[in-house]
Amino acid sequence: MKYHRIRPGAIEELAAELGAKSSKDTALMLGITPEQLEELRYGDVTNATAIALANRAQQLRRAAEIIGDTAA
User: Fold this and answer.
1) C-alpha angle with apex 61: 55 to 67, nearest 5 degrees?
2) pLDDT: which is higher, 54 or 43
3) Dihedral (C-alpha) 24, 26, 32, 38: value to the nearest 10 degrees?
4) 41-53 b/e with 16+ CB inside 10 Å = b?
5) How far apart are the C-alpha atoms of 45 and 71, rounded to whole Å?
6) So what's the pLDDT on residue 22?
7) Cα distance from N-terminal residue to C-terminal residue, the chain
8) What's the angle, vertex CA 22, arms to CA 20 and CA 60, rounded to 5?
């Protein structure tokens, strides 16, 4: 199984940017479980977590496109 690493402090920076008040909020906003968030924060990231994050990023990009199309 392949693992990925995230820069130390990146999750906390992202949480602050999102306005998350707790780890649970951060996980919900990222579309992952609290357990997967802990993976990101403290250890190696499994492929399953990386895929969940990629899927959430794609959803958010699509939502931004829709909002941008509507606003234009």
Assistant:
1) 135
2) 54
3) -70
4) beeebeeebbebb
5) 37
6) 94
7) 44
8) 40
> Which residues are CB-contacts of 25 (< 8 A; sequence separation ≥ 6)?
15, 18
**pLDDT-derived band at 3, boundaries 50, 70, 90:** low
Q: What amino acid occupies position 60?
A: L
What are 14's two structure tokens? 């992202």
- Where does the pLDDT of residue 25 fall: very low under 50, low under 70, confident under 90, or very high at 90 and above? very high
CA dist 44 and 46 (Å) reads 6
**What average pLDDT score do residues 21-39 get?**
90
d(CA 40, CA 37): 5
